[in-house]
Amino acid sequence: MQSLADGAPGIALPHIVRARAGRAGWAPVHEYAKAMTREPVHAHPETTTLFRGAPAVAYALHTAGHPAYAAALARLDHSIEHVTRARLDAAHRRIGRGQIAQAREYDLISGLTGLGAYLLHRQHRDLLRDVLTYLVRLTAPISADGEALPGWWATGSPDRRQSPRWDDGHAGFGMAHGIAGPLALLSAAMRRGVIVTGHDQAITTMCTWLETWSTGHGEHTSWPEVISRDELRDGAAADPGPHRPSWCYGVPGIARAIQSAGIAVGDPPRARAAEQALLGCLTDARQLAHLTDPGLCHGWAGLIHTTRRAAADATSGDLAAAADSAAQMMHLHLRHHGQPVTDGLLDGSAGVALAATTDTGTDGSGGPFWDTCLLTI
């Protein structure tokens, strides 16, 4: 029940959005709050993430902004600070030893980027700066077997399935498990005035990597989801895309991260190029055909919500119009196939409801953004 992805914290979010905007009462939110705190809240540093345990519960309670949750949030914040500092200490020790990272050290779903997103959500700026400083350090190249690798090169397989392809590790590109997540956090923090030494250079390093591995240009830009060491040596991805236009691994999440980066560092051409890439996947029937479910993570809702967020920062109305068109296609999909069979945020009906009811990417209440956990802000 303490999962933001598929448990009570995530399922509560659409109820929170409606209650906060005055469109519904608080009773359902209070019931979900009881459900997510009925058992002791998980806070072990090895396994606690933004999407599991104390940060997931605290994320939902803070999004609610209800005074009844203030005392619980204070207790949870103490546990989350302990988890974050333990994870940071372990990461810095690993870097100091010159070892290659695991993706779960730094990514959004399981790693320090996710914990940083929580700290940004709560506006805990001092500890957030420590996370940002770590992400800056992550951009320094690391040496393995005499080869220079990007600092975010990860050990093993990206999907936990054994394959000789991943014997020498991998680099992911997407928002959920790849470098777009850290880039999105660095950019979102800079845009909100939370800046550390080396911040702008780290953003540039990540953007340059993503641009180096892109194929095509303009509306035909795409990225691989992941590359192996052999592909890194060859300078060419075995499967460069385009892939499914999903928030988690695809063009939408990557393009939104780059757009936000361009805005953060004052590079309008970079932001506009990212907007064109996003527009391209919205207008390419071949890419849209890969969407087979309505969810936030890898379905229609994620594409639509990410696009609406990007459209709010864009200088033209093309993305907003494309998002409206995609929303019509999602409604058609729902009419033919029905709602998701689960209730969760990432793959279930909660995420679909949020994407369907927050037409501009926000709920208009002025409270904390529900989508900070996606780093589409």
From TrEMBL:
Tagged with keyword Nucleotidyltransferase: no
CDD domains, alphabetized: LanC
Single biological process term from Gene Ontology: peptide modification
Keywords carried by this UniProt record: Metal-binding, Zinc
Matching Pfam families: LANC_like
Residues that, per the record, bind Zn(2+): 248, 297-298
Claim: Ubl conjugation is one of the keywords in the record: no
GO molecular function terms attached to this record: metal ion binding
SMART domains on file: LANC_like
Record protein name field: Lanthionine synthetase
Species whose genome carries this gene: Virgisporangium aliadipatigenens
